[in-house]
Amino acid sequence: MHRAKPVIVATQMMESMIDRVKPNRSEITDVANAVLEGADAVMLSGETATGEHPVLVVETMTKIIKEIEATAYQYDREEMMKPQPHSPSFLSDAICYNACKMALDVNADALIGMTQSGYTAFMLSSYRPKAPLYIFTKETSLVPQLSLSWGVRAFYYAEEESLDDIIGDQIDILKQRGYIKNGDVVINTGSTPVDPHLPTNVIKVTRVS
After folding, report:
1. How many CB atoms are located within 10 Å of the residue 35 CB?
2. Residue 2: inside a domain, yes or no?
3. Exposure winner among 123, 133, 151, 193, fewest CB in 10 A?
4. pTM metric for this prediction
């Protein structure tokens, strides 16, 4: 979490459900702790590959995750993840950090980012924003990778016109797919000028119309 790198916990988390219909208390605790410690994803293997109740074990793990995320104490990430001036990515880190804070302040309906390397997506995800997080990239190999990060829904997008055109396209794509609607407030991050593919250096607030 400190380095904004995706983490998957996969340690036979619900092993007893290979042949049982309920997990052990220790397994419930393992899943809950993974959420509290900031893991991006938890993984099942034998429980779904060879287990007797593959659908039930997925439903059970999902229920635990949702309960913890909705009701349990969450570590205060604001101070822990605050951009560090000595970091070589300090400026783009500060943009991502403040985009998430702004999304919370204005109760944004979506937080939209662009990335070439995946870094912006990892940073935005690491702050666990309350707004739904949508990431666009022209790197096809990144789309499934980014989807493993907490809260990220990734899309392929390869156009490189002006930043305003790109942001307009992204909003239109999300409208067409039913993720946002007219009247919603969205926060976009991006970089300008577009051609050099600079690190994230822009925040824009838009009311969808």
Report:
1. 19
2. no
3. 193
4. 0.87
Nearest to 42 by CA among 21, 63, 24: 63
The answer on 84 and 61 residing in a single domain is no
| One domain for residues 53 and 96 | no
Contact 153, 137 (CB under 8 A): no
64 and 86 in a single domain? The answer is no
The model's pLDDT over 128-158, given as tens digits with 9 standing for 90+, comes to 899 999 999 999 999 999 999 999 999 999 9
In the listed set 43, 71, 99, which residue is the last one of a domain according to the structure?
A: 71
Provide the CATH number for the domain around residue 130. Answer: 3.40.1380.20
CA 146, CA 125: separation in Å to the nearest integer?
A: 10
Q: Report whether 84 contacts 4 (CB < 8 A).
A: no
- Residue 46 domain flag: yes
Q: Report helix, strand or coil for 47.
A: helix
Range of the domain at 202: 80-207
Read off the amino acid at residue 3.
Answer: R
Q: Residues 2, 130, 7, 9: is their CA dihedral positive or negative?
A: positive
Contacts of 165 (CB under 8 A, 6+ apart): 159
Q: Give the pLDDT score at 6.
A: 86
| 27 and 109 co-located in one domain | no
Other CB atoms within a 10 A radius of the CB of residue 48 amount to 18
Instruction: Show the DSSP H helices in 89-128 as ranges.
Output: 90-105, 119-126
